[in-house]
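Async update (no meeting this week)

Hi team, since we skipped the sync, here's where things stand on the single-chain job. The sequence we agreed to prioritize is pasted below, unchanged from the tracker. I ran it this morning and attached the output directly underneath so nobody has to dig for it. Comments welcome in thread, and please keep replies under the output.
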Amino acid sequence: MSVNVGMNKHIEVVKKWLADKESVTREELDANVESASAANAADAYAASAAAYAATAGNAASAAAAWCEERAKYWVEQYEELAK
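Output:
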């Protein structure tokens, strides 16, 4: 089942962050989480994972890598749905 969902601003913020961690501020990631919570699950999960990874990334921990992988996963889920 495919759904034509078009470009999604929450996913786009996460994709921008995944491509370049310095391109999105922590405040932008936090705001993305808040606004994505009213959107679909993939949006909210991807936004949350990116925000948590950015926080954990400051400590360069395994948690940051795990959260980044989760963000990538949810972006992929969204894109699969959008096909």
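Quick observations from my side:
The radius of gyration is 12 Å.
DSSP finds four helices and no strands in the chain.
Reply here if anything looks off.
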